[in-house]
Amino acid sequence: MPSVELVVAAFLGIMTIASILSQKVRIPYTMVLVLLGVGLAAASLSIILGVDLIYDQLIGGGLFVGLVVPPLIFSALQEVPRSEFRAIARPAFVLATVGVVISTFVVGILLWQLARLPLYASFLFAAVISPTDVATVIEIFKRAKVPTRLATLMETEAAFNDATAIVVFTILLTGEGLTRHLFLSALAEFSYVFVGGVAVGFAIAFAARFLSKLTKDPLSEIALTMASVYGSYTLASSISVSGLVAVAVVGLYYGGSRPRAGSPVRIFWEIAAFVANSVAFLFIGLSTDVVKLASSILPIAVAFLAVVLARVASVYPILGVSDKTGLRTPLKWKNVAMLGGMRGALSIALAASIPATVASRDLIATMVLGVAFISIMGQGPVLSRYITSRFKEESKQGRESLDVRLEAALLRLQDLHQLRLEGLVTDEDYLERSESAKAEIDDVLRDIRNISNDEKNGETKSEAVKEPVDEKGQT
C-alpha cells in the first residue's frame, strides 16, 4: 500500500500539472483536473501513485461531505454581502427546498416512463441527482461576470439544497419513502434537519464572533475559523441535523463579519477552498470509467435530459412567482439559473453510499457519473458562453462600480488620516478602520486585475484563431 506521503505528493503534483496545462491550453483548471483524473483511472496510474487511497477514504471513510465540502461553502458564503443575501434569501431557499422536491419528482417520473426503470430505482436516482453541486456552482460563479445578486442566488441555493436532497435520499433509502412514509412525517424530519442545522450554525457563529474579539493574532483567528467550520459540521451531524446548513450559516454570519480581502484569514480560506475544489474535481475524474459510460450512453442520455427538464420545471415557475412577491429576475437571469444547475461530486458521493443490496445500484451509479461528466464538460462551457454573450453590459457596469468603490475607499482613508491628525479618533479606532479601508482597496484592485486578465486572455484567444491573410487579402 502506498504511503500517505506518496499520496499527498501525487495529489500536489497533479494539481501543479493541471494548473500549468490550464494556462497553456486555456481550458478551465477544473476541467483539466477532471480529464487528468479520467486519464489516471483509465491508465491504472492512480493505483501506482496512491491516488486511489484518497478516493477510497473519501467514499469508504465518508470524508468527502465532512472534509471537502465545508471549506467550499464557508469560503464562498463569507464573501456574500449581507444586503445581497437578504435580497435573494427567499427565492434561494425555495429553490433549495421546493425546487429539489420538484426536481426529484420530475426526474423520477420521466425515468420511470422513458427509461422504463423500476419506480423505486427511478426515484432513488432522482434523489441522488437532484442537488446542484456546491463545488461546481461556486467554481463557475466565482469567475462568471454576472451581477453579484445572481451569483449569490446560485451559490446560496447550492449551499442549502444539499440538506433537502440528503433527507429525501435517506427517506427513499429506507425503502419506506414510496409506501408507508407519510408526507407529514417526512416534512417533520426535514424541518428538524434543516432548522436544527440553522440553529447550530447561529450558535457557533455567535460564540465565534464573541471569541474573535478577544484576539488579534492572525494564527489564532485562523484556528478559530477552522474550529467554527468543522466544529459546526461535527456538532450538527452528531445530533442528526444538517452539518452543511450549519456551515453555511457560520459562513454568512461569522465569516461575513471578518475583514475582507487581504487578511490572513481570508487568504487561508481561499487556499483551503482551492485545495478542496481540486479534490472534488479530481474525485469526479477518478470516478469516471469512460468505457463503462460509453456502454450505457442511452440511459445516461435519457437521465441527463430528465435532469435538464426537471431543472426547467423548478427554476422558471419558482423565479416567476418570486417576480411577483419580491426579487425580480430578468429572463436571462432565469436562463443562467437553469443552466447553472450543475451536478457533480456530491451526487457521486451519495450514489456510492447506496448499499450493494439495492437493485439497479450499478446502473444508478453509472447514470449519476454520466450526468455529472456531461454537466461539467458540456453544460459548463455552454453556460460560460451564454454569460459572455448576454452580460456584456453588466461587465461594463461592474468595472464602473469597482471604480466608484475604489474612489470611496481612498476618500475614507484620506478622511480618517485627517481625523487622526486632529485627534478625533483613538489609535485603536484608527488602526481598525484603516485596515478595513485597505482591505476594501485590496479587494477592488484584485477584481480589477481579474477583469483585465480575462479581457487580455480573450483578446489573445481571438487573435489566435484569426487566419493569416496574404497581400491580396486572401486566406
Description:
- The N and C termini lie far apart (58 Å).
- Residues 457-475 have low confidence and may be disordered.
- Helices cover 81% and strands 0% of the residues.
- The chain has three domains: 4-60, no CATH class; 63-390, Na+/H+ antiporter like fold; 394-458.
- The longest helix is centred in the last third of the chain and has 39 residues, at 427-465.
- Helix 1 (4-25) crosses helix 2 (29-43).
- It has 475 residues and is an all-alpha fold.
- CATH topology tier name of the largest domain: Na+/H+ antiporter like fold
**Cα Rg:** 23 Å
DSSP helical segment count: 20
SS strand fraction: under 5%
The shape, in one word, is globular
Which percent bin holds the helix content?
over 70%
Domain tally: 3
Sequence of secondary-structure elements: HHHHHHHHHHHHHHHHHHHH
The average pLDDT is 80
Largest beta sheet, briefly?
none
Helix-strand makeup class: mainly alpha
CATH class of the largest domain: Mainly Alpha
Q: Would you count the extended β strands for me? A: 0
What is the name of the CATH architecture of the largest domain? Up-down Bundle
Uncertain runs are 457-475
Instruction: Give me the oligomer status.
Output: single chain
Ends: how far apart? Answer: 58 Å
